[in-house]
Amino acid sequence: MRWIISEKTIRRIKNMKVLCIEKPGSLELKEFPKPKAVPGQAVVKIEMCGICGSDVTAYRGVNPTMKYPINGLGHEGVGIIEEIGENDKGLKPGDRVALEPYVPCNHCHMCKEERFNNCADIRVCGVHKDGMMAEYFLHPVQLLYKLPDDLSFKHAALVEPFTIGLHAATRARVKAGEKVVIFGAGVIGLMASFACINYGAEPILVDVIQERLDYAKEHGVPHIFNSKEGGIEEYLKEVTQGKLPEAMIDCTGAPVILEQMHNYVCYGGRIALVGWPHNPVSINTVRLMQKEIDVCPSRNSNKKFPEAIELIHDDKIPTDAMITKMVKLEEVEATIQDMIKAPSEYLKVIVEI
């Protein structure tokens, strides 16, 4: 029997579609040769990839870490290993995996201390190097994590953003029984809230969008506050019986919050900074010193993927409720434009590759 294959089919076998960002406001679906596995790196068939807030800011041109142009937006990918060599992780073709997008150099002093997220030469997929909104993706084997067979890809696409919340809670040294004020009820603020709950703490979630706060309350966040009309300090004192929270996690990067952050935690409190300001912000170092407040920036995540996979698999966060919409690669640009126009209507959008 002879198989007859059209030229179009042959091209599809050898090539792949990639959603490229040339410059702010410009996404284009292009074809590239399908990658081949090399020692230490595997080819993954990407099944789904989440749209992150940083993808939206990259499209808007206000992401301070973005390097244009990039062949492939996105860093929240999950998929199936198509091609892989021998490896010490026991991974093989056909395994379902989540991809950690922070690629370290493995040589600098931070990497030697295993603080890979703080690598001096880190390259984040979809930010500094090619991203995961592509049909196939070449990625280091060390950054692939096997998924349970009964964990769906759309739920697994929430693993990476959940690691950001877990890392932020770790940086803030959140302890059971503590109260933690979290600014920003977007996906990362919600993930930080769920991380605190899983660590036994009580999050106090603050935002100006009531719909997001209502969602958080409905899904287990014990304290919410709409700061649109002010009064946040009084509310925090009320919730903590005058003490103020032991910890704070800022997921906004908003100057109005950072300039006053010393007022939102108790003496000896801890603050983790997750949100990126668009420009440098002045802070009150005198009050920070008087109260001996620890301020810890929180960048990406480190060694949190296994924990996030386990917690999501065990239904410790409301995965279905966080997913606003599923879209195709061809619909990403229009969806991002709509997310910019109506941010309150979106939490997590998942791209089906």
TrEMBL record:
One Pfam family named in its UniProt record: ADH_N
Every Enoyl reductase (ER) domain range: 25-351
SMART domains the record matches: PKS_ER
UniProt keyword list: Membrane, Metal-binding, Oxidoreductase, Transmembrane, Transmembrane helix, Zinc
Chain segments annotated as coiled-coil in the UniProt record: none
Membrane-spanning parts: 180-201
GO molecular function: metal ion binding; oxidoreductase activity
InterPro entries xrefs: ADH-like_C (IPR013149), ADH-like_N (IPR013154), ER (IPR020843), GroES-like_sf (IPR011032), NAD(P)-bd_dom_sf (IPR036291), Zn_alcohol_dh (IPR050129)
The protein, known as: Enoyl reductase (ER) domain-containing protein
Taxonomic source organism: Blautia hydrogenotrophica (strain DSM 10507 / JCM 14656 / S5a33)
